Amino acid sequence: MSRPRPKVVYWNHSPTPYFVERFNAVVQRGTLNFEAWFNDRREAIRSWEVSEEDWLFPARYIPRRRLLGWQERIPVAELIAARPDVLVQEYDRSHLTAGFIAGTRLAHRTAFRVLPNFDTWSQRTWWREVGKRFVFNAVDAAKVPGADGARLAERYGLTPDRIEYVTQSVNVDRFAGARDLAPDDRQSRRAALGLSGCVFVYVGRLWAGKGVDDLFSAFEGLVGAGRDVSLLMVGDGPDEHRYRSRAEGLPQVVFTGFVQAPHLPTYYGLADAMVFPTLGDPHGLVVEEAMVAGLPVICTTSAGDIAARLPDGEAGFVVRPGDALQLEGRMLSLVDDARMRVRMGSRAAELATRRSHERYADDFEAFVRHTLDRPARTGWIPAASRLAGRALEFQARHTEASAVIEPRGTLVDDRV
User: Fold this and answer.
1) Which of 8, 133, 156, 240 is buried most, with the most CB atoms less than 10 Å from its CB?
2) In 3D, which of 19, 56, 10 has the Cα closest to residue 414?
3) What percentage of the chain exceeds 90 in pLDDT?
4) What pLDDT, on a 0 to 100 scale, did the predictor assign at position 410?
5) Residues 256/279, Cβ–Cβ less than 8 Å
6) Cα–Cα distance between 349 and 204 in angstroms, integer?
7) Higher pLDDT, 68 or 20
8) Neighbours of 159 (CB within 10 A)
């Protein structure tokens, strides 16, 4: 007699393209009874298009409700209805903490998605630090993308045996298509945009926290040194107007605005190298996208687990955040050595091709299985959390759960 499929709920801020494709890959395996919960259809700072037509998984949008005098998106009613075997979520906001506390009472096991963080992006306060230590001593498991995330989880109190690596994946087939752009087509597209010489591409938010000021300073240095270079800026953000103004005195800087995921490979295909000068990214999946596209990547050390993802001097370069001169030097190395660009780009593609959504589904399934096989956390902190969760359950006992959005995509069963 086969074991029933574990009921897994994954609660996230919004349905980003990355999450949707990963969740679809999980569901297609047919081994988990999977449901996704989201707070918002799209976060205010994001420009991604969202279409439920592509989803292979059931989902809910958690509404704002008043609970204990607090109006927030806390899915107690949904937890009462679903009673998941495993609840996976983030933990970095107060309503997530409240939902987690309810989960310690209403889910069989709880788990966190833990990414590295950097002080340049995070505002640390004593009460937030105390709160993190509390929840990390109550949660049953954590999934992390690499060693940096694991160290963070351990620092707040999770034991190493409850931490498991799960691949941060990208759509490998999509971005590998960037390498198929015909040379004549590539050249004509570059010319139409006004790009020439060695083309560097940046993909991401146009925001100072991404280190874009350092990128412009480095590019200005290359132009001042007489190099034939172009800068392709793909994205939008709060500082876009300022960067467009700064670019007015520079040759061959092209802004595309925000580009949806299906159209990104073309822009990677027009470039010779990718620059990601972030000052504090938890991960930065554009690094993997560019690598799959066959580009050498220059990235700062302030992108989670970058040393393992991008071998310095092998698939690109890793530089100090905020150091425009070092960034300029590494960019200059690629401008002056086309063979190096090709060699590093080939190695980058070889490495990043392993980070597929199918690999994510493998890792996630193993993570769920191991989380259920381990005993629940014990001690006074988990007990106190479950007691508080019981109070939340009592308060929400007459609250109706949000409606389930049934899958609208077509499930392809390719299992033998």
Assistant:
1) 8
2) 56
3) 87
4) 61
5) no
6) 20
7) 20
8) 12
Q: Which residue, chain included where needed, has tokens 């395996």?
A: 29
- What residue type is 246 in one-letter code? R
Q: Which domains does the chain have, with CATH numbers?
A: 7-169+356-395 (3.40.50.2000), 172-352 (3.40.50.2000)
Residue carrying the six token digits 């340049």: 120
Longest dimension (CA), the chain: 72
In the predicted structure, residue 414 carries a pLDDT above the cut 70: no
Tens-place pLDDT, residues 32-52: 999 999 999 888 778 888 889
pTM of the model: 0.94
- Residues facing 113 on adjacent strands: 143
